[in-house]
Design goal:
With 209 residues, the chain is α/β, with parallel strands linked by helices. Helices cover 39% and strands 14% of the residues. It has seven helices and six strands; from the N terminus they run E-H-H-E-H-E-H-H-H-E-H-E-E. It starts with a strand and ends in a 6-residue tail after the last strand. Pfam families: His_Phos_1.
């Protein structure tokens, strides 16, 4: 039985380009972001993948990425479930601020702690630990049973909501997850065993033509 789970961060957003903290704010994709999503969909189709079901967040950049990927695959008709559980980490008071400006205001070390520590939240926002506490139960209760039942599932979401899943799937610790960057528009393909552990993992080369 095939147990396919593909995770994809949205394509580059307008605020990624401007180096702004985004969180739950809802900027659109750039032209590059649209092309990243299309390339991801084409690559998945070329690899012979198909999906039965898709999940995405309540934010437009992830929803559009999901739709563009499925369009390139000729799969626009499949059921797509949108949920706040897969939203990006909430950056609270940092949302909308330029990252360099934030470093000047609070200092490089403090901003690094907010961005990369596991359990230190920015003012008014979520830590990665908080994000894991939101994402992981949804994965266990809603997504994983579908995959284990043989449904081929696409999850189009965000850097931090996907880091929460990758931490579990790849067996990373709260220390090693701090160094993980998930590139925009690059699908991570997981084949799971019956016990929900990873049998194989592949991904799109970012430099692919």
């Amino acid at each position: 039985m095939e147990r396919l789970l593909v995770l994809a961060r949205h394509g580059q957003s307008e605020w990624n380009l401007k180096n702004l903290f985004t969180g739950w704010r809802d900027p659109g994709l750039t032209e590059k972001g649209v092309e990243e999503a299309r390339i991801a969909g084409r690559w998945l189709k070329e690899q012979g993948y198909e999906f039965d079901l898709a999940y995405t967040s309540n934010l437009g950049r992830a929803q559009r990425t999901c739709a563009l990927m499925l369009e390139e695959m000729g799969q626009t008709g499949i059921e797509t479930i949108r949920t706040e559980a897969l939203n990006e980490r909430d950056y609270g008071d940092l949302s909308g601020l330029n990252k360099d400006d934030a470093r000047q205001r609070w200092g490089n070390e403090q901003v690094r702690l907010w961005r990369r520590s596991y359990d230190v939240p920015p003012p008014g926002g979520e830590s990665l630990k908080d994000t894991v506490a939101r994402v992981l139960p949804f994965y266990i209760q809603a997504i994983l049973p579908k995959v284990l039942a043989g449904k081929r599932v696409l999850v189009a979401a965000h850097g931090n909501s996907l880091r929460a899943l990758v931490m579990v799937l790849d067996g990373m610790t709260t220390q090693t997850i701090a160094g993980l960057e998930i590139a925009t528009g690059v699908p991570l393909v997981y084949h799971l065993k019956a016990d929900a552990t990873v049998e194989a993992k592949t991904s799109l080369d970012k430099d692919i033509d």
